[in-house]
Write a structure and sequence with these properties.
This protein is mainly alpha-helical and 82 residues long. It has one domain: Orthogonal Bundle (Recoverin, domain 1). It is built from four helices and no strands. Bound molecules: calcium ion (CA) (2 copies).
Length: 82
């Protein structure tokens, strides 16, 4: 039963992370973020960092890649004052 709980927790975590792709970032609503879309909400983002986030190299950040980037703390959340 422990595994079931873990899977449920992971699923909840992924569902939460999927919200990382907000309409604030994905301004054209296609579900993925280009570098220029990312730069609107994350002006500190560099092209190098964008390429690191874009793990499948398609030139866009999708939900999964955004979630991983958030998990690794690659992006500074503009809503959080550090
Ligand atoms: Ca987009
Ligand atoms: Ca990608």
């Amino acid at each position: 039963m422990k595994n079931v709980t873990l899977v449920a927790a992971l699923a909840a975590s992924v569902a939460f992370s999927a919200n990382a792709m907000t309409t604030e970032i994905d301004t054209d609503g296609d579900g993925i973020a280009s570098l220029s879309e990312m730069l609107v909400s994350h002006p500190e983002l560099t092209e190098d960092l964008f390429r690191e986030m874009d793990t499948d190299g398609d030139g866009f950040i999708d939900d999964d890649e955004m979630a991983v980037a958030n998990e690794l703390g690659m992006l500074v959340d503009p809503d959080i004052d550090i």
